[in-house]
Amino acid sequence: MADLDITAPPQPTAGAETLEQRLRLDGRSLRERAARGTIVNAAFLVGVSSLSLVKGFLVAAYLSASDYGIWGLIVVGLGTLAWLKQVGISDKYIQQSDEDQELAFQRAFTLELLFSGAFLVLVVAMIPVLALAYGNWDIVAPGLVAALIVPAAVLQVPVWIYYRRMDFVRQRALQSIDPVVAFAVTIGLAIGGAGYWSLVIGAVAGAMAGSVGAVLASPYRLALRYDRGTARRYLSFSWPLFAASVGGLVVAQGSIVVGNHALGIAAVGAIALAATISQFSERVDGIVTGTLYPAICAVRDRTDLLFESFVKSNRLALMWGMPFGVGVALFAPDLIEFGIGERWRPAAVVIQVFGLAAAVNQIGFNWDAYFRARDDTRPIAVASLVSAAVFCAVAIPLMILEGLSGFAAGMGAVALAMLACRAYFLTRLFDGFDMARHVVRAIAPTAPAVGVVLAARAFDGSRTLGLALGELALYVGVTAAATWVFERDLLREAVGYLRGSTPAPHGVR
């Protein structure tokens, strides 16, 4: 660390950079850079997210449901507390246009360090409270060890620099260190019989390895630079995101606390396993959102470009996201019977509903990035708090009355409430946006595949692995064909940008 400077004057926040200086396009159009960046991000994030999904199921084969439930308590307990830390410091850093970018980075790093230090104190203090709330003191020791992820994560902030420049190869390569190391350590320890400690130690090892890689690759010097004006701008941007995190915390913690007390630790394990599937969907969504956010920040005053990028990015994401979520619902019983084992049978309905919820959440999934880019984060807070209210009013009572099936129905209601909020705010942002038509277009390519599979099942006999795999192949094939029929023009356009052969509209770079 270098010197602490609290007197440096604020730098200009607008108009200081050209688009070329900000994004280092190297002669390419912004559309080409975004299209190619999507491919780069896909190559890294799909692989990394798939690794995490595989890790979850492999570990489930070596851990009992109760052991997995302990891990679920730790993940939800500390993970949802971590949501309170996600107050948008990195997003605001991406958005700013200061003249001195090294100084801007150091100021953002200082704020992240201060906030993370306070958050670490909160985590350590809350671990016994969480243990008391869950009625399970086995989480205290692994929870304290897992808290080491917090200081390690602070040192990973240099990846923000490459993100802002849309240098996705370097950004994603650095970010892949953490999950790859975590996978190797976790699986090795799980096979060795370490139980839930395999997941805890693996997560900490991955975070530390990622921090070392990020610090070594940082193009800017890590230094402490505090400025009150900068802090006020960041606070104005961040407080609604903090409120949104509180809403997410209510949903996640409520699921675990009520589930543990009303249904038992095995039910918590079922909820954690189902959440792993939806998290896979969310991580892959990050491919598109992560690619577009620096670009939409650069053109945030061009509403026409924002609208075009929103609609097209959603259509592209829905090509895989909707079939994935619906496919999880269709084939969850087969996954249990032929994959992870019959002991997970009670989780079938939760997995199915979480799959459908993941499909619904694909519709307008990156809406919040556009409001963040325009420095209007309050709608994000409103949507999150509405979802939390629906969870408390619907999901919790149904869980208590009907068990896991009731919880699943309640989470479906939460997904629909979020979709309604998105529709409301998006129609205010974009003139002419029609959420109903957007939903119909999202469902259209998947509907024929679902119909074909259900028709085939009407003639099936007893379930076998071969039959399940055949139906899965049929589902994928029909979905691919229907997607080409409905979206071939958009696919051709996207491929054209990848090749550099599709011209951008006049005046758009």
Number of helices: 21
Assign a percent range to the helix content: over 70%
Calculate the terminal CA-CA distance, rounded to whole Å: 39 Å
| Alpha carbon gyration radius | 23 Å
Unreliably modeled segments: 1-15, 505-509
Describe this structure in words.
Helix content is 78%, strand content 0%. It has 509 residues and is mostly helical. It has one domain. α3 packs parallel to α11 (196-217) and α20 runs antiparallel to α21.
List key phrases describing it.
21 helices; disordered N terminus; 509 residues; mainly alpha; globular
List the helices and strands and how they pair.
Layout: H1 19-23, H2 30-62, H3 65-85, H4 89-95, H5 101-134, H6 140-146, H7 149-154, H8 159-164, H9 168-175, H10 177-191, H11 196-217, H12 228-263, H13 265-298, H14 303-340, H15 348-361, H16 367-373, H17 378-402, H18 404-429, H19 435-443, H20 447-457, H21 465-499
Question: What's this model, at a glance?
Answer:
With 509 residues, this protein is an all-alpha fold. It has helices at residues 19-23, 30-62, 65-85, 89-95, 101-134, 140-146, 149-154, 159-164, 168-175, 177-191, 196-217, 228-263, 265-298, 303-340, 348-361, 367-373, 378-402, 404-429, 435-443, 447-457, 465-499.
